[in-house]
Specification:
The complex is a heterodimer of chains A (362) and B (278). In chain A, a hairpin with a 2-residue loop joins strand 1 and strand 2. Chain A is 19% helix and 46% strand. Chain A has two domains: 295 residues, no CATH class; 52 residues, no CATH class. The relative contact order of chain A is 0.10. Chain A is an alpha/beta fold and 362 residues long. In chain B, a hairpin with a 2-residue loop joins strand 1 and strand 2. Chain B is α/β, with parallel strands linked by helices and 278 residues long. Chain B contains ten helices and twelve strands. Helix content of chain B is 33%, strand content 26%. Classes of the chains: A alpha/beta (362), B alpha/beta (278). Chains A and B meet through strand 17, strand 19, helix 5 and helix 6 of A and helix 2, strand 7, helix 3, strand 8 and helix 10 of B.
């Protein structure tokens, strides 16, 4: 059972930056230090349950009674989260409900050590496009857990932009279980300045389940960040794709660990993985550890990593048209990280991402 | 008027000397052509003038209006008015053609100033039309997935936009079919004004049917061994290069026996398929 205690809210103002970004979007919910401060959803969302744990713990009591068994992870940060939740959000999309417009959730930290726990349930044949914006201004340790349950033939398109500052220490766990014919696609842009450890675990539990885990990350300064993705094939004929793009600048250390795990008897499953990285800083580190743990013969699997310095020919080409080394590097890096732009739904979010990348490539 | 002067230029890559004393002077308003068989150092000359990091200049000078080009970084050379239309331009995924060229144009303006979007789009669209390129060009990624001909036309397009004072076109004709060659030829010919000096590097005489050159140079053994007017081309066309080799006393005209670019990828452990997933 999750233990939940809502903290006292020190003030209910929303940062200007967040107001500006969210004002250009529809279907927005802003939750700061555990309190929902703003909620503006279109009619399409009328049938969707989106509430804080204040109400959800009662409304959805059945679910909470069995939570612990759903993801029994042997992971300290995760267990800590379940025991100390102070900000909880519950999203439930009922059977056959297909929501066309994206939902935008802004998770903001100002004055508490945030222990966020979000639950997303997609019932049979439902669809949701979920976007999260993670942001803090205070000094904090932030523990974020998102558990999603994608039922039969349902589809979750999960995307995010994470911009934690350097005063924060971040621990993120995203779990997703996918039933037969279900799809879970998780694509996150990590442009934090914080010390960050992120784990994504996807469990393909029914035949023909499909998962994608994509991370686009850039580190700078003396920051260290580790991103681990696991896609576990617990049913036959399932597909999992892990794709990473990373840039490490200055003296930062960036690590990807992707694990494609196919269990015994899970025939005709496909596990693929690719890692692409650019080491920009002279003292920067970038490691990619692509792993395949395969216990069945009749499967398709591949993994790869291509990590190197910025391409000299590209640099020369751009400079030969008058761009300074720095401008040329920035343009190449922003191009390299551009796969993220497809998941950002407004020009303002794209701009926000680009600005942060610029700051990190100074 | 601008002048590019190359004096006794020697350059090497690794330990191989490729340029062995090139002398050349180009004024704005002139079009020069450098011909010569493969492996004689023509493309190296172009790369050294632009400042490719692979080459070390060991001797000699390059001056643009009296200023020492060899002291300039690659981007400074470009802003000083040099342009190189490359034989193998790099592909840059994720960077659109229009973002790239807009950034390049802005580097020519004072710090903090930017070109008006309206002006830019008008100029760009016009150039795209004149080069008979596809309308979605501005939104496509820089050279990525371009055919050989598209890449070459994209180089000419950039030259049109950046309006250099001295432009070197390195084998701009290779890989072009006759129609594309005609388009490129027309566009370059239109640009031949008193404000630009052109250096065409080619080993096909065919290009010079479409772009008229004032002076023709033949390069062998890493230097210019013969200079003259268009008559040289006619003779090369019918007799090949042997008569020049004989005249200068050269048996093997090459300085580069193999010209393969090394491509290094660190830490690869992959099947091609895996890297292609969407």
């Amino acid at each position: 059972m999750i233990k939940y205690n809502k903290p006292v809210l020190s003030n209910d103002t929303i940062f200007d930056k967040i107001n500006t970004l969210s004002s250009k979007l529809s279907n927005v919910l802003i939750i700061k230090d555990g309190h929902i401060l703003y909620k503006n959803l279109e009619d399409e969302y009328n049938d969707i349950y989106i509430k804080s744990y204040d109400e959800a713990m009662t409304d959805k009591a059945d679910f909470f009674d069995q939570t612990k068994e759903l993801y029994e992870l042997d992971d300290d940060a995760y267990q800590y989260n379940l025991e100390n939740v102070n900000s909880g959000l519950f999203i439930h999309v009922p059977k056959n409900k297909v929501v066309a417009e994206q939902l935008h959730i802004f998770y903001i930290q100002e004055s508490v050590d945030l222990v966020q726990n979000t639950t997303i349930i997609l019932d049979e044949s439902s669809e949701l496009k979920y976007f999260e914006y993670l942001y803090n201004e205070g000094q904090a340790s932030i523990n974020y857990v998102n558990n999603s349950f994608v039922k039969e033939n349902a589809k979750l398109e999960y995307s995010g932009l994470s911009l934690f500052n350097k005063k924060a220490v971040i621990n993120v766990t995203r779990n997703s279980s996918v039933a037969r014919y279900g799809t879970s696609s998780i694509r996150i842009a990590e442009v934090n300045d914080s010390i960050t450890e992120t784990k994504t675990n996807v469990y393909l539990q029914g035949k023909y389940a499909y998962a994608e885990a994509k991370t686009i990350a850039i580190t700078s300064g003396v920051q260290s960040a580790k991103f681990r993705q696991l896609i576990e094939h617990q049913a036959p004929e399932t597909e999992g794709y892990i794709e990473n793009y990373g840039v490490s600048n200055h003296e930062s250390a960036l690590e990807f660990e992707g694990v494609g795990k196919i269990n015994k008897f899970m025939k005709h499953s496909i596990a693929r993985q690719s890692n692409n990285g650019i080491v920009l800083g002279k003292k920067a580190q970038l490691d990619a550890n692509p792993l395949l743990l395969i216990d069945e013969f009749d499967v398709e699997a591949s993994h790869g990593a291509a990590i190197g310095k910025i391409d000299e020919e590209q640099l020369y080409y751009l400079m030969s048209r008058g761009l300074s080394t720095r401008d040329a590097e920035r343009l190449i890096i922003s191009g390299f990280l551009s796969p993220v732009l497809e998941v950002l739904s407004s020009d303002e979010l794209k701009e926000d991402f680009k600005n942060q990348v610029q700051n990190k490539t100074l | 008027m601008s002048t590019l002067i190359i004096k006794n230029l020697h350059a090497k890559v690794d330990d191989n000397e490729i340029l062995t004393g090139v002398n050349l002077e180009i004024d704005t308003g002139e079009t020069h052509a450098i011909m010569g068989p493969n492996g004689t150092g023509k493309s190296t000359l172009a790369s050294v003038v632009m400042g490719h990091p692979k080459y070390d200049v060991t001797e000699g000078e390059i001056l643009l209006d009296g200023k020492n080009v060899l002291d300039m970084s690659v981007d400074e050379r470009s802003r000083a008015g040099l342009f190189l239309g490359m034989q193998h331009p790099a592909e840059v995924p994720g960077v659109t053609n229009s973002d790239f060229i807009k950034t390049a144009m802005n580097t020519r303006l004072e710090e903090g100033k930017t070109i008006s979007l309206f002006n830019f789009i008008r100029q760009y669209d016009k150039a795209v039309e004149e080069l008979k390129m596809s309308e979605d060009l501005p939104h496509r990624y820089l050279n990525e997935g371009f055919s050989g001909g598209e890449k070459k036309r994209n180089e000419i397009l950039q030259m049109k936009m950046l309006k250099p004072r001295i432009a070197i076109l390195d084998e701009i004709d290779s890989g072009l079919d006759v129609d594309a060659l005609k388009v490129v030829g027309d566009n370059v010919t239109k640009m031949q004004t008193d404000d630009i000096g052109l250096l065409l590097i080619t080993h096909y005489q065919r290009l010079l049917d479409y772009i008229k050159a004032d002076k023709v140079h033949v390069m062998m053994k890493g230097r210019i061994v013969k200079s003259g007017n268009i008559d040289i081309i006619k003779r090369i066309d019918t007799e090949g290069y042997d008569w020049i080799k004989e005249e200068v006393g050269i048996e093997d005209e090459r300085v580069i026996v193999e010209d393969e670019e090394d491509q290094a990828v660190l830490g690869t452990c992959a099947t091609k398929e895996a890297l292609d997933i969407k």
